[in-house]
Amino acid sequence: MYSKELTLKYEYDVIVIGGGPAGLCAALSSARHGSRTLLVEQNGFCGGMATAGLVAPFMTCYDSGGKEWLIQGLFREIVERLVAVNGAIPPVECGAPSAFTSYITVGHNHVTPFRAESLKLVADRMLKEAGVHILYHTSFVDAETSDGEIKSLILHCKEGLCEAKAKVYVDCSGDADLAAAAGAGYELGNPKNGKIQPATMFFRIGNVDSDKIEEDYKKNINNFYRIDGVNYRSLHWWVSKAREAGDWNLDRVSIGLFRGVDKDEWSINTSRIMGIDGTQSESLTEGEIAGREQVDQIFRFFVKYVPGCENAKLLQTGSTVGIRETRHIRGLKTLTLDDVLGCKVPDDSIMIAANSVDVHGKFGPRSNEYIALPEGKYYGVPYGCLVPRGFSNLLVAGRSISAESDAAGAIRVMPPCMALGQAAGTAAALAVTQAKSPTDLSVSELREMLIADKVRL
Q1: Is 2 a domain residue?
Q2: CB-CB neighbours of 84 under 10 Å
Q3: Residues 171 and 25 reside in one and the same domain
Q4: Residues 215 and 80 in one domain
Q5: What is the CATH number of the domain that holds 165?
Q6: Is residue 291 part of a domain?
Q7: Taking the model in full, what pTM does it have?
Q8: Prior bond to 57 cis, omega within 30?
Q9: What is the 3-state secondary structure (H, E, C) of 57-82?
């Protein structure tokens, strides 16, 4: 049996695992509230799906009517910092329908196009300003747990394995890797139908004559429709022609394309890779390979069929496949689909959002379930959704919070994940300051801190 004596290399108040949208905001909020904070990230930069996965734009941060900016706090600060370095276009300028929203209106009003490279830089600067100890090129390996308390973590650095300890741990891995390793209960995907939302390989194209795409869209402005759970949206008229000619065999009928900060660049969200389990390396490997093959076909389709893309260049594919869903922890509270669609804002809510329920592949590979809220409405997420049952010093933020699978289809996108991260980081710092377990915090006090930090509740 393999064994090794590990050195305690890091000891902090708060350790955040994962530097994606949730982890970035968790580390920032923890450090800004006075906790010595370590951020552990496997890549050489922060941003997660926003940078490594090339997922763009940030989906809407507004209410369902597109009138009020709901998700503020650190998310809004990051957007403003990006705008200041020409790394984003403010959401107020990106109404729907438009090239920024893939010409979709419902649920897409006021998205935020951004440059992944700018986000890497802005994240580094903000973390350093806050005094966060950033540890890139480091992976979480395992947790030592006793009686519902995490005693320490095993990390893999370039130097080898080491031990790290904290008073409070925040799992922002996206897959609840820390929580699962510690023994927390969870559901994988949707236990009712045994499905996990499909993966997508995002990619970016450039050297596009975007005026020609706009002209083509205007000719087909009244040609968007939905049949049997399948959306016939942008460029479905060209996909149909490509299929007839034998140039398209993917189980997609339209294209998700979102104009970037530069007019000639677009992010493409079209590939659909079914049956990928993002908690398994073999499955992820299969997804990466299949994703790149699909990108190759989609890009060739753009060049051959789409007006304005005759001279397009493939700029980049995501360095990791985009994962929408894996584990959902079992928390002290659970966000339900009824909560979301009923626009419930409980007294212990730590964020509000109006993002639509969006479950890809629910009725088959070409389909999705998309349910938008009534105009002007929004819902809240209870603090207990961040707290795994049976643990005294662990919080979870991001798409793996305690939520029914369909409800998670609403809050899995990046602006809500950032808000969840900010709440978790603030709660962790409050627990450290008061020498309490996150389970014993005054949620009203936590809410007061979030409101002071410009979070809308």
Answers
A1: no
A2: 11
A3: yes
A4: no
A5: 3.50.50.60
A6: yes
A7: 0.97
A8: yes
A9: CECCCECCCCCCECCCHHHHHHHHHH
